Recover the amino acids of this structure.
């Protein structure tokens, strides 16, 4: 250990001790203040403030900071050492002395942006503070690892005094080399400059992030939520933010990130469960399992439907379908009022013209169903006014009694403003429609959709349209207006979903992220980000491309890129961080030897200290069969099956189809059945195989039956990254 390093280490140990003592002192002082439980509003607010400080200090006690930045502001005689942590802490001073100063700077503070954006050099740098731009020089950037209040590692990534010209990646590579557990973790200590620009982007825009596998886009989006709550704390609330994720298991996987950042109460849902709730259909219809359609595409290669704009999911999620629904709503609006006068009893007549004016003109600003409610209420008031003119009690009673059934009969002639009922009519093959309408919905799709709708069953692809019809008929409830919406795996969303959700987001405030190269549900999702970006005004959007992958080793990324190039021919390739590891293994084995081979691989991974291992198959059926075989052959191991019904990701050893692994990552991956029959040279198959390869952090084994030819998507002649056999 060099004298310079020893001196830096001792300096940081002393600073850590002093910091911990101050945080502990503040925490104990707050804990000793009795919790206020009375009804005085002012005292309640003060107690809430104290509790927030208690929680922040408690979290800071575990790991007070992770970085140090020595910054010399222009005009100042010397640099100041700023310590950056997850939670800002001020050093309290005695009454009558100067204002409190930051003991730890919150990572979201303006000056902390320099810790992430600074890339080295002696030139001056600038950050934006509330009072304006602040210019100065960075003298030192230091990364620190503190665990259990113990300083474990000190790494200088830039030191001006030693002539360092650039920031090094040593600390980043160190953190990336750590093994994972069953939860996604925050990246506060290793946020990169390109990620920081996304996190700190303005609130009122639709932000699109194209990120390659392992670029940290999901984590960046979660950190962006934490930043927005810090930066716009007077304008937005956590409970008015929403995260849409692909499934419940993925939500469980990311569930620890926001609490680690001190953020709670943000809503996290899947789009299907949320859409059914908003429309009120959760107890009315049955949602078909999305696994059925996925298995249709990836389970039966010979029977796969054509992938084009007529695919059911693509069509139902298109703006062309939205236009068609608009036309049908316009027709419904035009024909809503029955062409007849209303008479509650003989001699009393409310003309069609009067009712029509009420509906089409006076209540035009309301949604269709709400207009009807207003008209019904007004007819009821008219009846009451007419009854008041009747002097005879007997006649009054008779007329009132007669008006009720006549009113019911009259209202039955009105259009039924029900989203599900209207949606069913759109696909009814027997409906009387124009030739133009018949060309809008393909006959095959019309017949197929009508068949399952008759059973009150809907698919995921129907939900955006049902939601759109519902809000056009009934409007958006106030409880469902959001300050910001995050959409993960957005390449699997449709333009219609985004168009509908825009009505729920204040000021078009979105973070929309995904990877077109992982668009394995392209039969329902998008093929290009312009399909979504074009929904917004140009100035209301921004686009970021994250091309650097922080997850996998260089060998794994290189191997996966070749798969993508061969099948998709894309330039959207990942650039790996300089982290080398084991070569990718292509293993050819006879079926009868597979159990022993897998047992050997699992034992080897276990001896390497890997906490998460995945065996990836093409389909759920193959996953279930493999899990059954492994459970018999490796009965001493706890092996989890993931086939689409799970609410949680348990970690350890998992067997699952590739399409359920998206968004997850594992220390080691065994990719099963990588033969030409399972993965022919097709864009969707290449994307599926690419997703499987890029789940691995440290090791990737690619297995195939020795009697079957290897997939043409896999390169076998690159000796730098691929080893054949064991």
């Amino acid at each position: 250990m060099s004298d310079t390093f020893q001196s830096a280490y001792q300096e940081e140990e002393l600073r850590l001790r002093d910091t911990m003592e101050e945080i502990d002192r503040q925490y104990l002082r707050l804990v000793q203040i009795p919790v206020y439980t009375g009804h005085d509003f002012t005292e309640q607010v003060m107690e809430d403030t104290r509790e927030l400080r208690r929680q922040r200090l408690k979290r800071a006690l575990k790991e007070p900071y992770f970085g140090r930045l020595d910054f010399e502001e222009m005009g100042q005689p010397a640099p100041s050492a700023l310590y950056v942590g997850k939670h800002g802490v001020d050093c309290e001073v005695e009454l009558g002395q100067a204002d409190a100063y930051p003991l730890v700077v919150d990572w979201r503070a303006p000056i902390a942006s320099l810790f992430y954006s600074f890339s080295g050099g002696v030139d001056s740098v600038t950050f934006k503070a509330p009072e304006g731009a602040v210019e100065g020089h960075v003298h030192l950037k230091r990364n620190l690892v503190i665990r259990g209040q113990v300083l474990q590692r000190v790494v200088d990534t830039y030191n001006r005094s030693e002539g360092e010209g650039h920031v090094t990646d040593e600390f980043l590579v160190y953190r990336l080399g750590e093994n994972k557990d069953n939860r996604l973790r925050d990246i506060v200590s290793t946020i990169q400059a390109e990620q920081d620009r996304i996190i700190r982007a303005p609130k009122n825009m639709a932000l699109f992030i194209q990120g390659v596998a392992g670029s940290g886009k999901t984590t960046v989006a979660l950190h962006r939520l934490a930043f927005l709550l810090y930066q716009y704390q007077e304008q937005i609330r956590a409970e008015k933010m929403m995260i849409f994720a692909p499934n419940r298991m993925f939500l469980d996987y990311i569930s620890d990130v926001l609490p680690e950042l001190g953020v709670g109460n943000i809503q996290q849902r899947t789009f299907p469960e949320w859409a059914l709730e908003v429309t009120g259909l959760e107890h009315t219809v049955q949602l078909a399992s999305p696994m059925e359609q996925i298995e249709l595409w990836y389970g039966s290669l010979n029977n796969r439907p054509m992938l084009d704009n007529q695919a059911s999911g693509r069509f139902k999620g298109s703006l062309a379908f939205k236009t068609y629904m608009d036309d049908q709503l316009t027709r419904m609006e035009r024909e809503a009022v029955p062409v007849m006068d209303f008479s509650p009893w003989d001699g009393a007549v409310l003309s069609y013209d009067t009712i029509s004016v009420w509906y089409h003109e006076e209540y035009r600003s309301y949604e269709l169903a709400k207009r009807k409610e207003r008209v019904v209420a007004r007819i009821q008031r008219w009846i009451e006014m007419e009854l008041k003119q009747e002097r005879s009690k007997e006649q009054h009673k008779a007329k009132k009694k007669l008006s009720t059934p006549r009113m019911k009969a009259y209202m039955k002639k009105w259009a039924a403003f029900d989203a599900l009922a209207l949606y069913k009519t759109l696909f009814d093959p027997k409906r009387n429609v124009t030739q133009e309408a018949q060309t809008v919905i393909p006959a095959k799709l019309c017949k197929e959709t009508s068949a399952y709708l008759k059973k009150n069953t809907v698919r995921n692809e129907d939900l955006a349209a049902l939601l759109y019809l519902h809000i056009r008929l009934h409007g958006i409830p106030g409880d469902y207006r959001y300050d910001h919406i995050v959409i993960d795996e957005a390449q699997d969303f449709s333009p219609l979903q985004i168009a509908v959700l825009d009505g729920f987001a204040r000021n078009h405030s979105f973070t929309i992220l995904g990877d077109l190269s992982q668009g394995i549900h392209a039969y329902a999702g998008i093929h290009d980000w312009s399909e979504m970006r074009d929904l917004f005004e140009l100035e209301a959007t921004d686009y970021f491309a994250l091309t650097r992958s922080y997850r996998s080793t260089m060998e794994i990324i290189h191997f996966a890129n070749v798969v993508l190039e061969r099948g998709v021919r894309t330039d959207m390739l990942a650039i790996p961080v300089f982290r080398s590891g084991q070569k990718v293994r292509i293993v050819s084995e006879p079926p009868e030897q597979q159990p022993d081979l897998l047992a050997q691989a699992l034992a080897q991974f276990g001896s390497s200290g890997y906490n998460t291992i995945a065996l990836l198959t093409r389909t759920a059926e193959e996953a279930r069969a493999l899990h059954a075989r492994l459970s018999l052959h490796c009965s001493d191991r706890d092996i989890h099956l993931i086939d689409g019904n799970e609410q949680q990701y348990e970690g350890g050893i998992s067997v699952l189809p590739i399409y359920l692994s998206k968004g997850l990552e594992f220390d080691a991956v065994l990719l099963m059945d990588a033969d030409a029959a399972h993965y022919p040279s097709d864009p969707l198959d290449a994307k599926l195989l690419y997703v499987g390869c890029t789940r691995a952090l440290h090791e990737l084994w690619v297995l195939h039956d020795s009697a079957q030819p290897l997939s043409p998507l896999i390169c076998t002649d690159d000796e730098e990254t691929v080893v054949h056999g064991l």
Summary: Residues 3-31 form the longest helix (29 residues). The radius of gyration is 31 Å. Residues 336-412 form one domain.
